[in-house]
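Researcher: Going back to the complex we discussed earlier. I've cleaned up the inputs and rechecked each line, so this should be the final set. Can you rerun the prediction on the complete assembly and write out the structure?
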Amino acid sequence: MTRAHTSRDFEAELRELRAHMLAMGARCERALQVALDAFWTGAPELAGEVEEIDRHIDRDEMDIDALVLRVLALRQPVAYDLRFLAGALRLVTDLERVGDEAVNIAERAREEHGVAKDSVKSELGRMGEQSQDMLREALEAFVHGESVRAQQVLARDDGVDDLYGCVIGAMTKFMSQHPTEAAEAIRVIHVAKYLERVADHATNIAEEVIFMVRGEDVRHTRTHPPPKVGKESS
Amino acid sequence: MRRVSSAVKMRATDLSVHYGAKAAVKTVSLEVRANEVLALIGPSGCGKSTFLRALNRMNDTIPEARVTGQVELDGEPIYGPDVDPVLVRRRVGMVFQRSNPFPKSIFENVAYGLRVAGTARREIPDRIERALRQAALWDEVKDRLNESGTGLSGGQQQRLCIARALAVEPEVLLMDEPASALDPIATAKVEDLVANLRETLTIVIVTHNMQQAARVSQRTGFFYLGRLVEVGPTTDLFTRPRERETEDYITGRFG
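Model: Rerun complete. Updated structure for the full complex:
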């Protein structure tokens, strides 16, 4: 993407940073996958594994922050390097939160399950797949420095928001029909919310990639339709 | 911070400078706006200092240097048979990399240009005080104006040279690596001075120190192999330069 730096130490630091961010991204994808497996199979033992991965992700965040601060202090980077480092600080914050959302999802696996989640299996399942896919694509765009690929991630956020609206609509209806199982429906809504947040973090990462590659700040520039809360699934 | 006026103070058009057969500056067109600090950066030998020297006809003093194209000051050409280069240099002053005070008193160092310009003797003390104050040196030297300028510290000597340049009240000040031989504190004083001087004059500064260019200037031009590759607002140039050559140079991916 860019030529090697004249200073080999600086080049080595940038490579170390990139490698560490990729490893952190891979751990986030893994945490989310295990969390969703735990939730769907109702296997609480998997929740412990997610927590373990999340602890690793938290350490990644601190290590990467420290490395970025060291490079900023010692190298006074400019242009692409500066955008990469500033973007890295934001990107790891989003990744760390993806880890937290994975833990939240896995915790729901420890709770009692009924038929509520089965009634939105399709919508919630698609939310999981799409937010995982957005995260993967955003990280791929980062790895390859592809702003067009990142742009495609941005375009997909509204689809996840729509599914979220569908789940809420379905659960609202479920609660009115099964008032004694309201707690379970609320747990399903929570999981949908966590997944919606994962898609938001993937969107943020994609925006950060665009900033790194093109120097354009595209945050807060898109117009979102309001989520269609209450809409029945199609 | 004061806004940069859009008025053009100096304008170089298709300016080339040859040293014998070698082209040091190749058809550069660049404007300097009133009350801005314009920084020129680029690797050694890129032509930035030669370009700077062409702005007050300092290259005239080099026998083999040949200048083509034009430079205007307030719309008037500074190269031409009926233009007195001494008058150009009075309006467009210069400060060099190595502070070069005369082996005279602090007072006489600053008075020198005024005496050459024929300033009335009774005006000289006031003009000297004003120039030394502008150069942020007055408080440090006011009690020893008759001591030798060469006895000052490096940073003070450089500010003395700046005072000497300011005494004749130039409209433009050209600075060629003015802080490269100074320690960080003396450098900070010179940079602070540059920011204040901009209130009253226009400054073009050549520097190898990119952080310095970023700190003191409103616009920055990048020179490479005698060409002006890119010029633009300093913030843009250091965050998202337009040209690949600029990006490679400022991020240290050169050569």
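Model: Worth noting: Chain A touches chain B through 17 residues (CB under 8 Å).
Researcher: Good, that matches what I expected from the previous run.
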